[in-house]
Design brief:
Blueprint lengths: L1 H16 L4 H13 L19 E10 L14 E9 L4 E9 L3 E14 L2 E16 L6 E17 L3 E19 L2 E6 L2 E16 L2 E12 L16 E11 L1
Antiparallel strand pairs: 1-2, 1-11, 2-3, 3-4, 4-5, 5-6, 6-7, 7-8, 7-9, 9-10, 10-11
């Protein structure tokens, strides 16, 4: 009888003690980790954000230039830094610096965003400053320019992933070249073209999110290849592929 009582006491002790085991605490941490929501970590979703906060990300972009623009393929990827500062009422101020050192583009401007359940919408208007300098290969040229860039985006979030589709229009205000101190206006204002992009975001670890994007430009010129600006009025398809990480 005492033997059976001892076995029952051991079983009872194990059933009670398991609630205090360290492994159970670790399990709670796993449950908390599973509560991750991509909306709290996404950089690309066009959604309203808590006001007065700064968000940023980095990316690498690979651009496939048309063979009509250059005889040599440019395989050097662009480095991209994105930042946004959230404002009240769904507004934020965004900026992006894309650089290849000899070719640079800085765009900045306001966006307004709205979310409904898992859907997100955003519209914005940015200004872009172009700057390029090349002193090799027979060049000693500096180029500057300004563009207007209205944008519209739509996104959808799942639990740990998100998809964002965006359209941009590029209107060139001015393009000026500086050759040995002589400034030459390359063109009057004109519609450069437009682009459509799709980006997929997923959780990498903790609150870090990795993004994969594909962008199709339809342009008269791309700032990356400014030394080979086309002289005709045609527009060309310029694919871009991008990988990014929020910071």
């Amino acid at each position: 009888m005492s033997k059976r009582l001892g076995i029952l006491l051991i079983i009872f002790f194990l059933l009670v003690w398991e609630n205090f085991l360290y492994a159970q605490v670790k399990s709670d941490n796993i449950i908390k980790a599973d509560s991750f929501d991509i909306r709290n970590a996404s950089f690309l979703l066009p959604q309203p954000l808590p006001k007065w906060k700064y968000y940023h990300s980095i990316a690498v972009s690979y651009v496939i230039l048309p063979p009509d623009w250059t005889l040599d393929a440019i395989n050097v990827p662009m480095l991209i830094y994105n930042g946004k500062f959230s404002l009240p009422y769904g507004f934020n101020f965004q900026g992006t610096l894309s650089t290849l050192f000899v070719s640079n583009r800085l765009n900045f401007g306001p966006f307004w965003n709205y979310s409904f359940n898992h859907f997100h919408f955003g519209i914005g208007y940015q200004f872009a400053f172009l700057y390029g300098y090349l002193g090799q290969f027979g060049y000693k040229t500096e180029i500057t320019g300004w563009e207007d860039q209205p944008s519209m985006g739509i996104g959808y979030n799942f639990k740990k992933t998100a998809l964002t589709v965006r359209g941009d229009l590029y209107y060139t205000r001015s393009l000026n070249a500086n050759e040995g101190g002589h400034i030459l206006a390359l063109s009057n204002s004109f519609l450069n073209g437009y682009s459509v992009s799709a980006s997929f975001e997923q959780r990498l670890y903790r609150n870090k999110v990795l993004s994969f994007g594909c962008k199709i430009d339809y342009l008269r010129y791309h700032f990356l290849a400014w030394p080979a600006f086309p002289v005709n009025q045609y527009r060309y398809i310029v694919p871009e592929f991008q990988v990014g990480l929020n910071l």
